Amino acid sequence: MKCLRIHAFVGMTAILAASLMTGCHKKAEDDVQSSPQLIEKGDGHSLLIFKPEDYADLSAAVVEEVELPGVLETTGQVTFDDRLVKSISSRVQGRIEAVNVSLWDTVTAGQPIMVVFSPDFMSAQEEYAQAQSSSVVHGSQAYADLAAWMLTAAKRKLELLGMSESDIVAISSATPTVVMRAPIGGTILQNQSMVGQAINPGDMLYQVGTLDKVWITADVYEVDLAKVKVGQRLEAVTTTYPDEVFHGEVSRISPSIDPNLHTAQIKCEMDNPGLKLKPQMLAKVSIIVNPGRALVVPQRAVAFDGNAYYAFVETAPNTVERRKVEISSWNEENYARILSGLHPGQRVITESLKVNALYHGVRGESY
Length: 367
Fold this sequence. Notes:
It is a single chain. Helix 3 runs antiparallel to helix 4. The longest helix has 32 residues. This protein is an alpha+beta fold. The strands form 5 sheets. Strands 1, 2, 4, 19, 20, 21, 22 and 23 form an 8-stranded antiparallel β-sheet that branches. A 6-stranded antiparallel barrel has the order 5-14-17-16-15-18. The protein has a 4-stranded antiparallel β-sheet with strand order 6-13-11-8, with no helix packed on it. It is 25% helix and 38% strand. The N terminus is likely disordered.
């Protein structure tokens, strides 16, 4: 009987010990799960509350406000100044008899570039020749005035058909072929002319552009846009000529903002000595501006999640708030510029990737 009591006591002790062990394991699991605790706020923000010993393992940094340099740097691309580009279009119906220039050739103003056959030229030249003959016939003043008017009108018609002043003066007899000349000096940017090609009024034959002055189109962040003004001086350096500085000024500022990049385009008019700047070249642009101020944090203080950046801001002891921020590039390595979401003096966790993973772990999500 005594033996039975001993066995019963031993059994109850074992059960009690097992129960205590189970409770300890459950408490340990609860302790692990409770750090950090997640509190979802109604405004879309989330709080993470850590145990003091866990929070002590995290490092933090202060959001700093620093002075911006007096030079705003960006990148841009060389383009033609469209004010210095002209198209040569056909003004008659006819056929191309000869082509004197090709793509990328350099031409001077007035240089012959093609010969066009068209009966329209012959009829216009005949009218001009008749008007010249009438103008030398002596008669009344009224007749002389009419003859002068007819000569002016005939000459104007030839000009509208594309003939130059020198070619009109040199007309000795009517001919259906006429030499077409470059309206400006520059580079042949487009060539859509072939010998034997039929042409109609309005057909584009050539496009000529000059590179004496070019534009550099660059992007400026919205937060920096207020510092950029038309007329500001700037410098540009290309990878092709890294030791040569090209000078210019801000000529145009886009009236709209790119909603995805939060940037605005500017056009900078550049001098192009030696025609070294070529369209589509990339350039580093430095604009002389008035100094401003910016917020910066270590790059490790922001984590990219989904399609946005987040920082974890210390709001109370052992407590951080997950906050969406907008960032921009910064010229100091390992630092990011904050455009919105943070304020000077706030403390942010610099192990943002680790804390962001904990945030998703508490929510039962993968990250």
